[in-house]
Amino acid sequence: MSLSTSDSATWVGATSAGARGANRGSRSGAPLLEVTDLSVTFTPREAPAVAAVDGVSFTVDEGEVVGLVGESGCGKSVTSLAIMGLLPRRGVQVGGRAVFAGQDLLTLGDAALRDIRGREIAMIFQDPLSSLNPVVPIGVQVAEVLVRHRKLDRAQARRESAELLERVGIPDPQRRLREYPHQLSGGMRQRALIAMAVACQPRLLIADEPTTALDVTIQAQTLDLLKDLVRSSGTALIMITHDLGVVAGMCDTVNVLYAGRVVETAERVPLFANPYHPYTVGLLGSIPRLDRARGDRLTPIPGSVRDQLPWPEGCAFAPRCDRRTDACIGRPPQLTRVVVPPRTHRCVNPVVPAPATLEEVS
Amino acid sequence: MIRLILRRLLQLIPTLFGLSLLLFIWLHRLPGGPETAILGERGTPELREAVRRSLGLDQPLWVQYGRFVGRLVTGDLGVSIQTHRSVWTEFGERFPGTVELTIVAMVIAVSVGIPLGYLAARRRGTWLDTLAVGGSLFGICIPIFFLAYMLRLVLSIELGWFPATGRQSVGINATRVTGFFVLDGLLTREWDAAWDALWHLILPGIALASIPLAIITRMTRASVLEVLGEDYVRTAEAKGLTARVIRQRHVLRNALLPVVTTIGLLTGGLLSGAVLTETVFAFNGIGHFVAAAIPARDYPVLMGFIMIIALIYVLVNLLVDISYTIIDPRVRVR
Amino acid sequence: MSVLSPGRKVEKLDRLAELAAASADGRGVSLWREAARRLRRNPSAIAGAVILGIFVLIAAIGPFFVPYGPTETIGVANGEVRPAAGIIPGPSAEHWLGYDHLGRDEFSRMVVGARQTLLVGVVATLIGMTVGCLIGGIAGAAHGLGGRWGRRVDTVLMRIVDMMLALPSLLLAISIAALLGPSLATVMIAVGAIAVPIFARLLRGSMIAQANAEYVLAATALGVRKRRIALGHILPNSLAPVLVQMTLTLATAIIEAAALSFLGLGNPDPSTPEWGKMLSDAQRYLEISPGLAIYPAIAIIITAFGFTLLGEAMREALDPKLRA
Question: What is this model's ipTM?
Answer without folding.
Answer: 0.82
